[in-house]
Amino acid sequence: MSRKAVFALFFLAVFQQAGAYGLTFLLPDLFATFRADEKTVGAMLLITAIATIITVYYAGHLSDLFGRVRTLGFGCFSIAVALFLFGNASSVGNQLIAASIFLGSGWGITYSLAPVALTGLVNRSERVRYFALLSIFVMAGFGLSPVMTAQLLKSGYDVSDAFYVTATLSALSGIIFLFLVNPIRQIALKSGTEPRSKLTLSNMRTVLSSRAILPIIMVCLGASIFAGMNNFQTVFARLRGLDYADFFLAYTVTVIFFRIILARFKGGSRPYLTISGMQYIMCASIVIFLLMGDSALLYVLVAVLFGIGYGASYPILVAVAADDANVDLVPQTLQIFALSYFVGIFGFPLIAGWMIVDVSITAMLVLIAVLAFIEASLALIRATVR
Description:
Layout (H helix, E strand, L loop, with lengths): L2 H22 L2 H6 L5 H29 L1 H21 L5 H26 L7 H28 L4 H21 L1 H7 L13 H8 L4 H18 L2 H8 L3 H19 L8 H21 L4 H29 L5 H29 L2 H24 L2
Helix pairs in contact: 1-6, 1-7, 3-4, 3-5, 3-15, 4-5, 4-7, 5-6, 5-15, 6-7, 6-12, 6-14, 10-14, 10-15, 10-16, 12-14, 13-14, 13-16, 14-15, 15-16
């Protein structure tokens, strides 16, 4: 199989399973069908976060045992089971807990190992380009799944049907990854066995004491901001009389456009300065969202600016994490990077859900605006202080 065909199938599988995360934005609507609120959503996503953290730690062990690509396939099957259980749920209970665990396990594997698999297929100089391509397909998957759900609802289907459709796509992704095991081995840069990927307390300490600690901290902050803006966007839109599909479509198109540009961009000679500029734009988008009221035009503008700020800076951040890592610990660094991401993406909704129900939406948005300012400033400091 040609190199282009392998990458095409790899990215297709990534795209199909990425829709699963987009459906977490619809959990408030799904849970509302059995009278559960945003705090319950946050609690289930906390369970997902715990499962993810445990899985990311052991993802390298599974990768060493079964191979990276085969393990990716297993992760997709876990996601498929999770989505089916979510779609079939009719009350808060053990089924939702099991679904949350399967989702965390699946995403912990796929999100942490997909970049690691790519590092074995591309040269250092190609990392920003291919990480940008990877993130394009991830973004397309989870950005378009809420849009697909909105169309299904308009056509008379239930929100649970979107979970069943995406479960099927995730299962197909698992099959594709299993099919790609041998073709990927044949085009890998290094022949023979894969470098060891498992995490240990020793190499975790080494990674956390390296220059890569900054992007690891930043990705957790960014993921928290992203979760705060997106996981409850259906709630924000409903209260303001807006259509959440407009937000997700504008955000997704913006991110894909700028990540296509980034696929030809190396991040410049000062990538942290580029990241900083984009993330100050992200901070500005949240401030506008706080003040805009029910303006549909400003709603789309917020989505576009947030897409430029968060979405376009992310692949550069992944690349600098790999570049800042010790050469022999790149796989472990990227796994810890993914673990930090999931702490924010699945852990922060617990805080956000509590604030929305017991404090106010405004207070939650102020919090993520402050986090955005801090993250942008950290990047600026790294760019200016050598």
